[in-house]
Amino acid sequence: MSKRQLTRSERNKIILKIGIAAGVLIIIMVFILVALMPTYTPKTERTSGSVTPEGIIEVDGVKYVPKKNIETYLFMGIDNPGKVEKVEDYGGAGRCDYVMLVVRDLSTGTYKTLNINRNILMEQDSLEPDGTYIGTSTAILALAHENGDGMEISCENVVKTVSNFLGGQKIDGYAAVNMGAITIINNLAGGVTVTIEDDFSNINPSLVKGETITLTDEQAYDFVHSRWYVDDETNESRMRRQSAYMADLKLKLKQKCEENANYPVTIYDSLGEYMVTNITSQKFSKLALLMLKDKDDGELNIEGTSEVGDLEYAEMTADEESVEAAILELFYRKYE
Fold first, then answer.
1. What CA–CA distance (Å, rounded) separates 167 from 186?
2. Exposed/middle/buried for 62, CB within 10 Å: 0-12, 13-18, 19+?
3. Strand runs (DSSP E) across 117-173, as ranges?
4. Residue 264 contacts by C-beta under 8 Å, 6 or more apart in sequence?
5. pTM of the model
6. Could you report the per-residue pLDDT of 21-39, keeping only the tens digit for each?
7. By CB count within 10 A, which of 73, 109, 189, 227 is most buried?
């Protein structure tokens, strides 16, 4: 029987036996946004009232209404060190190791980000590289990008998976960047400054615990990408480092764009061979400059319970109340 004929469970086991490679990319999410029309309806068991024609919902005795003037964008960091290319074999597309949703509220001039753990179990489609549908089952989010061609088909599968996880929220734009672009991004920012809080002695001795340094391009790759042999080796610790890197990266790139209105185009063009996106260069530049004026209204995270799966890899079951709370905060406001 060929690999194409294996069940989803069998295919997941084959994939996981290869080992979960550490790979992440955090980059340009602060610069991109796309229109969103919310459609979420909370789960029946937590709703004490039905949805009205005006879109009003009630959760635990509190009424909410959909935000009308928001935009959204999905960012993916792909565990692939090379340039993007179309693949013909299952598993060659790479996993999405970093997933972040950005929601901009035009009414308040703010934006929020939702960090989505790659280990969260989500219902997702199994696809052939040409997009042929095989079946739907539950697997960790990281695997959603491996289903497809490594290009648009893979990205759209992640978009669909995340949208369904968030109750059907519409996501109109995305960008997926291979981890090989980390050094490019760090260089574009002129180096990102962080405090080393983990023990990197087994990976890169120049990253000394306790020191605050401006990362070279090579150091940035290890700081953002490495997980194995770094402290507790968990994805949660790596996500914390990514958030720290993101904080200074945003400041550095914002300064570059304020000094040069054409800098977003430089970023876009520099990432070209490592990025798959449905945002054009012209729109990217325009939206980048607009978003730089917005206020960062904070980060959200999905809580849950982690356990080791059958093949001794981490799997996270999302807490339903945490998911519902994130959806309400991102896409709804209290009805007054």
1. 35
2. exposed
3. 121-127, 133-140
4. 31, 257, 284, 285, 288, 289
5. 0.80
6. 333 333 333 333 332 233 3
7. 73
